[in-house]
Write a structure and sequence with these properties.
about 325 residues, alpha+beta, Beta-lactamase, 3-stranded antiparallel β-sheet, 10 helices
Length: about 325
């Protein structure tokens, strides 16, 4: 039985409109597991708990975990200089460490602002590096301030590739997704991999839903290129409570608040925002709005994945978490 207030939050997602998949995990059990609306409007394909949405910036927690796995392997260190791994970066980036990239304190120029307005070819992580190679400055001295940086996570993906000696997507599959049984989850590479049970993104334009599934940055993997479902993310959530993937000391580093953000209520760790006792992250890209909200002390998690440009699901997740906690 879905609580009436939860049903009210989901009402706008019902019918032949872009949909939502919602999961509430309480004490390790799926208390609410529901999907509504459409994953593919044109074909009337319904959303299900197995529907894979583009996670957008929820991807960053997996990129951070990939770095952490290589730290545990002894192949990387959190305080490695990024130019040790990506030596084509300019001198202005010389002080930047992987820790700075993970916590958005590197001061990198926003690569999105460097893309030519007439670009029609999808950028990849290596293209982000090529853009940043030309920038002989940073917004601030590394480590002195916070500025959210998608480019930093693209550089982290490339660093993982160099340290591991394999493609970033392959590393994620081999070291994270397959061991955790996340068999539907993929760092999507057009022409290389396939997203099964795929949700396509939509935006409201003039009162109608228009497919807006990809843009010039959608193929960059490190900052937002993973597709996953609420069923697979339940397995990810479970792995964050024990040592099946990462040791306790490493998990503590990932989840320790490292820097204030531009919101006084939020601090940033490594791929996670920290507000009080909650760990969370939103993910927003063209046609998708997602959030994962965890309260580890209560062993409570709310995940909301949607394939539409509006509204933001964070208020919904907060409201559902309040209901689920009783």
């Amino acid at each position: 039985m879905i609580p009436r207030t939860v049903a009210a939050w989901l009402r706008p997602y019902r019918g032949r409109v872009p949909g939502a998949s919602v999961l509430v995990i309480d004490q390790g059990e799926a208390r609410i597991r529901i999907a509504c609306g459409c994953a593919d409007l044109e074909h009337g394909e319904p959303a299900t708990p197995a529907t894979n949405y583009r996670l957008a910036s929820l991807t960053k927690q997996f990129t951070a975990a990939a770095v952490a796995l290589l730290v545990e392997d002894g192949r990387l260190g959190f305080d490695d200089r990024v130019r040790d791994w990506l030596p084509s970066l300019p001198g202005a980036v010389a002080p930047v460490t992987l820790r700075h990239l993970l916590t958005h304190t590197a001061g990198l120029i926003d690569y999105e602002d460097l893309i030519a307005p007439d670009t029609t070819v999808a950028l990849r992580d290596a293209d982000v590096l090529a853009l940043l190679e030309r920038e002989e400055c940073t917004y601030f001295p590394p480590g002195t301030a916070y500025r959210y940086s998608n480019g930093g996570y693209a550089l982290l993906a490339l660093t993982v590739e160099r340290a591991a000696g394999m493609r970033f997507a392959a590393f994620l599959r081999q070291r994270l997704f397959t061991p955790l049984g996340m068999h539907g989850t993929v760092a999507f590479e057009a022409g290389v991999s396939t997203v099964f049970h795929r949700a396509y993104g939509y935006s409201r334009v003039g009162g109608s839903w228009v497919r807006t599934d990809q843009n010039a940055t959608s193929s960059v993997l490190g900052d937002g290129g993973i597709y996953s479902s609420i069923d697979d993310l339940a397995k990810w959530d479970a792995a964050l409570y024990d040592d099946r993937l990462l040791g306790a000391g490493t998990r503590r580093i990932l989840f320790t608040p490292a820097t204030p953000t531009d919101d006084p209520a939020v601090r940033y760790a490594m791929g996670w925002r920290i507000t009080g006792e909650t760990w969370w992250h939103s993910g927003e890209s063209i046609g998708f709005r997602n959030v994962i909200l965890r309260h580890p002390r209560r062993r409570l998690t709310v995940i909301v994945l949607t394939n539409r440009n509006d509204p933001q699901p964070y208020p919904m997740a907060l409201a559902i978490a309040g209901l689920a906690s009783g």
